Automatic annotation (TrEMBL):
This is CN hydrolase domain-containing protein. One of its GO terms (molecular function) is hydrolase activity, acting on carbon-nitrogen (but not peptide) bonds, in linear amides. InterPro entries: Aliph_Amidase/BUP, C-N_Hydrolase, C-N_Hydrolase_sf. Residues 1-214 form the CN hydrolase domain. The lineage of its organism: Bacteria, Candidatus Yanofskyibacteriota. Keywords: Hydrolase. It comes from Candidatus Yanofskybacteria bacterium RIFCSPHIGHO2_02_FULL_41_11. It comes from the Bacteria.
Length: 237
C-alpha cells in the first residue's frame, strides 16, 4: 500500500476506551495515531480488540507497566488483526519522568510492517537528532512522534513544528505527531520527506486526517555522503 489514510487524534484523556472506540470506528482513517501515554497498559487487550473489530491500525503512546517494578513510556503498533507488530520504549526521558518512576528504554529500532517501515521518537525524543537518524539509516518511512502534553506557549509550538519539519527533510521520512487535548496548546502535524507541511493543527479535540503517499516522496537520502568515521564524539558520554 503506497498511500496511507492516516488520522491524527488530539484526544481527551479522561475516558480512554470510549474515545479510542469512537475514533477507530471512524471512516476518516485506516491508521489512527494517539498521543504519548494515551493508552494504559491495563487497557491494551481492549485496544487490540477494538483494532480487530474495526480492522484498523492503531499507533499509540502507552504508560507501560507490563514489566514488574519497571514503568516505561512505550509506543505500540497494533495491526488490523489485533496483533502488536512493533513497539518502542522511550530512550531519553525528562527529569519529571525520572522523578515519577519511569525508566529509559535501551534500543532504537525501526519496525517493519506490511504498510511500511515505522519508527518512534516519543515526545521529546524528536529533539535528539541521533534517534531519527538511526531510524532513517534503517530505512524508516514514517516516524511517529506521540506527544505527552501540548505546547506550553507559542514559541514552543513554533519550535516543535520547526524540529519536525527538519527531522522529516534531513532524514527523508514522513514525521507525524499529535498531543492530548488539555490546558496547554494541543498540536497535530504531518511533514513530508521533503519538509513540506501536509497539516499543522492546534486548539481542537478531533481527528485530523491526512494521506501519506509513500511512493510520491521516494527521494535520495544522500546518506552515502555521510562520514561516520568523523562522528565518534557523538557516542562519547
Amino acid at each position: 500500500m503506497s498511500k496511507i489514510k492516516l488520522g491524527l487524534v488530539i484526544a481527551k484523556p479522561e475516558d480512554i476506551i470510549s474515545e479510542l472506540e469512537k475514533y477507530v470506528a471512524s471512516d476518516e482513517a485506516d491508521l489512527l495515531v494517539f498521543p504519548e501515554g494515551y493508552l494504559k497498559s491495563e487497557y491494551l487487550d481492549q485496544a487490540k480488540q477494538i483494532a480487530k473489530t474495526h480492522k484498523k491500525w492503531i499507533v499509540t503512546g502507552m504508560d507501560d507497566k507490563r514489566l514488574k517494578n519497571k514503568k516505561l513510556e512505550s509506543g505500540i503498533v497494533i495491526d488490523p488483526s489485533g496483533k502488536i507488530v512493533g513497539e518502542h520504549q522511550k530512550t531519553s526521558i525528562t527529569q519529571w519522568e525520572i522523578d515519577h518512576g519511569f525508566k529509559r528504554g535501551n534500543s532504537v529500532k525501526a519496525l517493519k510492517t506490511s504498510l511500511g517501515v515505522f519508527g518512534f521518537a516519543i515526545c521529546y525524543e524528536i529533539h535528539f537528532p541521533e534517534v531519527t537518524r538511526i531510524l532513517a539509516l534503517q530505512g524508516v518511512d514514517i516516524i511517529f512522534n506521540p506527544i505527552g502534553t501540548g505546547m506550553w506557549h507559542e514559541e514552543q509550538f513554533k519550535q516543535w513544528n520547526a524540529v519536525a519539519k527538519t527531522r522529516a527533510s534531513e532524514n527523508r521520512a514522513f514525521v507525524v505527531g499529535c498531543s492530548h487535548y488539555n490546558d496547554a496548546i494541543p498540536i497535530a502535524y504531518a511533514y513530508a520527506p521533503t519538509g513540506e507541511c501536509l497539516v499543522s493543527a492546534r486548539d481542537t479535540n478531533r481527528l485530523i486526517s491526512v494521506v501519506l503517499d509513500l511512493d510520491k516522496y521516494k527521494t535520495d537520502k544522500h546518506f552515502k555522503e555521510r562520514r561516520p568515521e568523523l562522528y565518534s564524539l557523538l557516542t562519547k558520554k
